[in-house]
Amino acid sequence: MLNWTCPVPLRDQPRIVMGHGGGGALSAELVEQLFTPAFGGPAPEALTDSAALELGGAKLAFSTDSFVVRPLFFPGGSIGDLAVNGTVNDLAMSGARPAYLSCGFILEEGTGTDVVGRIAAAMGAAARAAGVEVVTGDTKVVEAGHGDGVYINTSGIGLIPPGVDLRPGRVVPGDVVLVSGAIGVHGVAIMSVREGLEFGVEILSDCAPLGGLVEAMLAVTPDLHALRDPTRGGLAASLNEIAAASGTGIVVRERAVPVPDAVTNACAVLGLDPMYVANEGKLVAFVPPAHADAVLAAMRAHPLGAEAAVIGEVTDAHPGMVVARTALGGTRVVDLPLGEQLPRIC
User: Fold this and answer.
1) Is the pTM of this model over 0.85?
2) Which candidate in 64, 164, 175, 283 could, as Cys together with 155 as Cys, close a disulfide (CB 3.0–4.6 Å)?
3) What is the H or E stretch that residue 193 is in?
């Protein structure tokens, strides 16, 4: 723990710091104030994990992501699994059926070819499990000391079925908030091996492709309002992003949020809040109340949604704010994290 560095710097920092990659307020400021104006893109509130595009009469989802996780291998997965599932899940959050991926490797000179081979094999297996093909790619090598073994970028495209329109702007007061299972598992799994910590039981990452779960939900009704996979910044960041983009408030029942005992205990030791810890195989859904019970049943019937739960609702009170009702009957504000509790987790 003596080697930990603070990922939450002052917000007027004139240089890039770790917090800018954390999926919180600093990341949002970087996108809104630097990248979006430079690229002349859409308003920040229109940005999601994947872009929905019209091409030749078809509606496509397109997404890209980079992976810098440390260590490269962890309980329940590797950077290879993350590179596939992370992009597949971003596409699935648009309701798309993921189809094709690209893959770019940045390798540090001196990295063992056996290590690269294990990662590539994991990527291939993950792609087959997700039902996608890796169809193009690139490899670059940087000098020793100028990388961290292996970095990976993946981009993906998928087809959005007719009638599906998933975006934060469709979230309205009255929507029911569902989560597909226990939160905080991936971040704690990474920290356990990174810092050599033991918590009595092995905690495995929840890294998994969510396309099949989303298809099961859409089979109940295409009228889901929004989906989000709570990766960097955890559940708290995803809820805050949706609240801000939709101009609504969100109320979460803290006791309803599924958190495994092992994660609760680990977070208590590390001084972390499970709501802010990253996930790689979970989703949060905003569903009209008329369909909530049926969608929840469909989620629970799927292996990746067996622990799905209703955790809250959308309200017209306190727009742009997420509030948690505590077990003691009080309330607390669940704010957007500034940086990241656990850097380099994906």
Assistant:
1) yes
2) 64
3) helix 185-194
